[in-house]
Amino acid sequence: MRTSVKEKSSFFVWLLLCMIGLMYVILMSKFSILRYDSFHANMFDMGINIQAIWNTIHGRILTETINMGFPVQKLWFGHWEFIFLPIALIFALIPSPDTLLVIQSLFLASGAIPIFELAQRQFKNKWLALVLSIMYLLYPALQNANLFDFHGLTLATGPLLFAFYFMVIRKRGWFYFFVFLSLICREDVSLIIIMFGFYDFLFLKNKKEGIGLFLVGSVWFLGFIFRPYLYEMLHLPPLPAVEQAPGHWAHLGSNSPIGILIAIFQKPFYVLKFLFSRDNIKYVIKLFAPVGFLSFLSPSTIWLMFPTLFINLMSNWSHTKSIEYQYTATITPFVFVSLIYGLSFLKQKLFFGEKRFGKSVFYLLFACVFGLSLLSFRFKSVVWDSYKWQVTPHDQIADSMAKSIPQRASVSAETYLGTHLSERKAIYPMTMHYMEADFVFYDFYKSNVSLYTKPGFDMSHLPPINPFILSLLKNREYGIRSFQNGIVVFRRGYNYEKGIQELCFGRKNEIKSFIRKQVTPNLLLVGNTTRPRVGIDRSILHYTFFWKKTKRDENSVLLTFVIKNGNYSASFSHHFVFGLYPYASWPVNQVIRDEIYLKIPYKMHSDHYQIFLKVKNADASNQKGSFLLYLFQD
């Protein structure tokens, strides 16, 4: 029997959907891996989740050390991301962070299938269903969550869409499977399952199943909330006491879930004012503008996202009300489910179904919504920032040095570097345990370093030269095992003097600009390399100077940098190599690498400076010991 035209058309549309989905997986996996390889992924949360999965395949189930500074299982602290258990089996076969990023892209791309099936079911139009699936894959919040590290919550988007679809078509086995898969992605997905229960009970008239879903979601969520009491009931060893940061909802007057719930009812006017704040309104616009706000035409389905949306809106942490992170993962499914039902409402109720004029208006409106989707993709998806994620030679050096650190060793690392060291038993965000770990991994050439200096997830962004790294440089228990292109590996117990030489013994091939200035009779400025400015406001000039002592000289040399900008000037005293390697100790004819950081006063902020160097021998009897040399302009 010859295949009908309709069957061929259906096959062709399905083939297109699969090809588009595959293209999404390939491109998003590529961009995610590039972001990781170029050191843009943070230990919070990429490093945490890599370590939890790596520890799982080594017998320490979902254990990580980054959050608390000691080994703790996610069952008792952190999120309930039990989805990592089956993922660990795949990771054991292909042990690479790339594996996790590809899996995440696959999970998100899979959501296009239930979107297609739901839309085809509502509109009986496979081409319109295909366009809606494309809109889903182009949705900025979806892509941004895909590209922001690896999270169990992000994985929930696809399973929730499948669960809703199978609930609607009454395929119970598949529905229960995807409910379970969604639940184990993260604990707060249970709130969505509770909403599924209401929907099933009220709109699909499956009363027993609706009550069952409500109970399952409630038990799961309450189990998460009351797990500290369960921990005590089981008489497990007490966890070390640590200082906790205020929660995202502490502005309500409590950190506990029960206290927060009570506060919401006690402060209704405050809650309303907070909900309708400017940031919250902008957040809602970013969520719904890509679908033309048509999701609001389906109150029964848009209600499914209420728990997550309310939690995000009531948080005082900016990340939760941004579309650039994972916090939209359980909102995205119902933006599109509601869009489908909202469009169906328009088609059936407002435009009277099959009337020609009504159909024309409907498809014109749909074209406008698709245009909004394309505009939102162009201007709100971080995929357009992927040009920043190119792997540089500096990144390659950092990766090579990270791999040189033994996997059995404990490490404290700057939080972006540490992500590449998370496949180990003990890894900490610097400055946590940075005076106790076997190794410390740091980068002097970053514009800013991200350090853990206070409880919570808000890292301190500091210039690369700061009190913490200066303390470590002076700690004789740690020696610098290797220094290359600003990236440094400290090792506990390594020879300190040898480490200082590793830090400051330079090579001529490192010098970008040769100067050869005779600074004192025995001191030669061989050259310098101008580095990018550092600091949050880029107000710190960074140079690498290369010196050479031409003859034996045991006198001290005092340096002062003078920066001039118009009528303003500023002076900075400088000690060679952070004051760790005095001039008198230098070997003759050895090139000495010296990192110079000059903080520009605010009133002098400009793009053009004159920089001078005053050099004076400590021996006042040397009449030629004081010089004023014009060096260069920046």
Report on the architecture of this protein.
The chain has 634 residues and is of the alpha+beta class. The protein folds into three domains: 5-35 and 46-234 and 253-387, no CATH class; 393-504, no CATH class; 508-633, Sandwich (Immunoglobulin-like). It has 24 helices and 17 strands. The strands form five sheets. Strands 4-3-5-9-8 form a five-stranded mixed sheet, with helices on both faces. A four-stranded antiparallel sheet has the order 10-11-12-15, with no helix packed on it. The radius of gyration is 30 Å and the shape is elongated. The termini are far apart. 40% of the residues are buried.
Task: Explain briefly what this protein structure is.
With 634 residues, the chain is of the alpha+beta class.
Secondary structure: elements and pairs:
Blueprint: H1 5-37, H2 43-57, E1 63-64, E2 72-73, H3 84-93, H4 97-110, H5 112-123, H6 126-138, H7 140-147, H8 152-155, H9 157-168, H10 172-183, H11 189-202, H12 207-225, H13 227-233, H14 257-266, H15 268-275, H16 278-288, H17 299-302, H18 306-314, H19 332-350, H20 356-380, H21 393-403, E3 411-413, H22 415-418, E4 427-429, E5 439-443, E6 449-451, E7 460-462, H23 467-474, E8 478-484, E9 487-492, H24 496-504, E10 513-520, E11 523-534, E12 540-549, E13 557-565, E14 568-574, E15 591-599, E16 610-617, E17 626-633
Parallel strand pairs: 3-4, 3-5
Antiparallel strand pairs: 1-2, 5-9, 6-7, 8-9, 10-11, 11-12, 12-15, 13-14, 13-16, 16-17
Helix pairs in contact: 1-4, 1-6, 2-3, 5-6, 5-9, 5-19, 6-20, 9-10, 9-19, 11-12, 19-20
